[in-house]
Amino acid sequence: MKLVIAEKPMLARDIARAICGREVGEREKLPVSGNGWCVCALAGHVLELAEPSELRREWAWGKDFTEDMLPIYVPRWPKRPAAGKEGIVESVRALAGKCECIVNAGDPDDEGQLLVDELIDYIGYDGPVWRVLVNDNIVENIRRAFGSMRPNDEFRGLSEAAYARQMADMCLGVSESRLATMRLGRKLSVGRVQTPTLGLVVRRDAAVEGHAPETFWTVLAHVELDGTEYEIELAASDDAGERRRILDESEAARIAHGLEGREIAMDVSTARKRRQSPLPYTLTALQSEMSKRFGFTLQQTMDATQALRDNWKAISYNRSDCPYVPAEHHGAAPRVLARAMANLGERWDLDYGIVSRAFDDSRVGAHHGIIPQDSTVDASRLTETEKLVYRAIVGRYAMQFAPPVVYDESTAVCACPEGVLKHVAKRVVDPGYTAVFGAGAADEAPLGPLERPGAVTGHIKGALVEKRETRPPKRYTEGTLVADMASVAKYVSNPDLRDALKRKDEGKEGEHGGIGTVATRAKILEGLIGRGLLARKGKTIVSTPLGRQFYAAVPGDISGPDLTARWWLMQQDVAEGRAGTDAVQSDVAAVIRAHIADGAYRGATMPGAGPEVGRCPVCGGALLYRGKVVSCETNRSRRNEEGEWESLGGCGFKVFAVFCGKQLTANQMAKLLAGKRVRVSGLT
Predict the structure, then answer these.
(1) Which of 159, 169, 439, 579 could cross-link to 573 by cystine, CB 3.0-4.6 Å?
(2) C-alpha torsion sign, points 664, 666, 669, 671
(3) Neighbouring-strand partners of residue 222
(4) Between the CA of residue 215 and those of 101, 210, 237, 367, what are the distances in Å?
(5) Which neighbouring-strand residues pair with 313?
(6) Are 324 and 511 in contact (CB under 8 A)?
(7) What pLDDT, in 10s, does the model give residues 447-499?
């Protein structure tokens, strides 16, 4: 038999329907056999990198761990079955022992390649292996894919690159987190994605709180054209014709006075435009939309989509980063949407003759847009969150079968010595999909005399000056934060690294040089909140004092998204055979060694750790005031099962700040440690 290893159970059943020659139920037990094939499924990654303590006893995190053990670096880092997935591993091992060949049916991306390859290696299979690239559940497409299988070795570079990233992430996470924890005196976590994400919020909060409003003045001209009056804002310009703000009220008044009564000629251009319906959702777009409309957290939306997929078979793969859909889905859409609308009690007037831009095989990646499935769902049994998310997914797919909004747009421009007067007017000709689904296609402004292109003469009846102030950026919501995580390249100053981040996401609509994946961003955010580095404040996400001070202590070379770009370039070298699999981890280890040597984190204090009151006479570290005790920053301790504090390392220097029942302040201890006399009230 030929053994097919699919990434997920749902995909395995789809494959079995296509190649096993028999009916396969939605919940049929795997593996499924027939026609000489045996199809089984994994559950994502069934293997994970071993913990450091499993590899070397002295790497266990505790009182005996010291800085000289860093970095924790393991070439070809071993793997073991993930908790709860041991049975899957052994099942595949047994099947592999009876097969003539294996077919890797992981998702057609580097992670999909890796999660099957790593298992093949782990069980020691040495027979022939083929690769099939399946990215949808349409039977004919699956059969076509199996007709063009290729040797799996042609794709091994992808899994090696993904493995390289796994090892680098582990090396950075365990090593840098331990270094930060030992030197800052409290348990902290550093990561390639989580730390830049923290930085996004910290920097946004600093911009909001540090914003100094700048006052400027705007000139609004009341222009009459053929009996119709328009209020048009002057875009002031300097001598070189560049747009500028007017910062002096008297200058604005002078400009306004000079415009009054002036005869002008406006050059009018017109165009008929169309606004297509938005594409089906990716997970990021869906999370952002649900946050904006209903205040859902990223995790709430993720959980709702998982339930809709796993429990109800109501939607396609939910962790997609691609909004496009294979063209074959177009023919099934009338049936699929009729069932979905019945589930929701909706009846939209759709035109299934429309072939929207969403149906584009050339732009479908490892996954396609999140769309409804041909499945009966009792909406009354859904949670309110699941129902709202399902309705949004169905509605967005249904929009593909509604016409575009058609509108006329007229632009009138007049250049004058003080700047440019520009007015844009729109008139909706056909509300298109907004007539069915809403979305506001009303006129923004009447066209009036701007109906036809050409020159229109008129005069300025009057002008007024309006005082305005610059505004700070808005604090992040979960929706805007996940959108920025998907396009973080715009914050990278190095043009080469910025371009590298963007190249990483080429062909992914809505992903423009991002960090993390659509599947991990919710977990990253929840982790930062759970560790007290970020917090929810109403509908916004803000940084905590701990988060701000910790981020300030993180070395600059790992605090931003640049590291992801640099690693991606190295991963490309691995994928194409120009570098070994360990190249990325080696680079990380070198970075950590530099941090150790350069004294990273030393001198910084964390909220709750107390202010610095001197330098340690034993190791030179910062002495931190902790209430009743002044202790070296290198000291770490924990409360054991008996309730006693035990040391976890550090130089051990500490001094009590209580004398004769009187507790000294931080300032008093700083003076004493500097060799100065201190007067304490009540003591003689």
Answers:
(1) 579
(2) negative
(3) 231, 462
(4) 73, 16, 17, 49
(5) none
(6) no
(7) 777 888 999 999 999 999 999 999 999 999 999 999 999 999 999 989 999 99
> Hey, is 125 helix, strand or coil?
coil
**What integer is the mean pLDDT of 258-262?**
96
Show the tokens assigned to 668: 């008093």
Is 163 within 8 Å of 45 (Cβ atoms)?
A: no
CA torsion sign, 281 to 285 to 288 to 293?
Answer: negative
pTM of the predicted model as reported, rounded to 2 decimal places: 0.86
Given a contact cutoff of 8 angstroms between Cβ atoms, the answer to whether 622 and 602 are in contact is yes
Burial grade of 53 (CB within 10 A; 0-12, 13-18, 19 or more): middle
Q: 242-271: b or e for each residue (b if 16 or more CB lie within 10 Å)?
A: eeeebeeeeebbebbeebeeeebebebebe
Determine whether 317 is an active site residue: yes
Q: Whose structure tokens read 């190791």?
A: 619
Neighbours of 424 (CB within 10 A): 13
Indicate the pairing of strand 101-105 with strand 129-131: parallel
> What is the maximal distance between C-alpha atoms in the chain?
97
Catalytic choice (281, 317, 433, 476): 317
Closest to 236 in 3D by CA, of 251, 215, 214? 251
Q: Of 56, 68, 60, whose CA–CA distance to 179 is shortest? A: 68
The residue written with tokens 């047994």 in the block is 94
73 SS3 class: coil
What the block records as the tokens of 648 is 């976890």
User: Nearest to residue 647, comparing CAs of 657, 637, 635, 633?
Assistant: 637
Q: Buried b / exposed e across 305-329, counting CB within 10 Å, b at 16+?
A: bebbbeebbbbbbbbbbbbbbbbeb
Surface-to-core class of residue 76, CB atoms within 10 Å of its CB (0-12 exposed, 13-18 middle, 19+ buried): exposed
Instruction: State the distance between the two ends of the chain, measured CA to CA, in whole angstroms.
Output: 92
Instruction: Give me the count of residues in the chain.
Output: 684
Q: How many CA atoms lie within 13 A of 293 on its CB side?
A: 13
Span 598-632, pLDDT tens digits: 999 988 877 766 667 888 898 877 787 877 788 88
Check residue 668 and give left, alpha or beta (phi > 0: left; psi -120 to 50: alpha).
alpha
Tell me if 637 sits within 8 A of 185, measured CB to CB. Answer: no
What are 214-248's pLDDT values in tens digits? 999 999 999 999 889 999 999 999 988 899 999 99
What angle do the packed helices 298-310 and 283-294 form, to 10 degrees? 120
User: Which residues lie below 8 Å from residue 119, measured CB to CB, with a gap of 6+?
Assistant: 5, 42, 46, 47, 89, 92
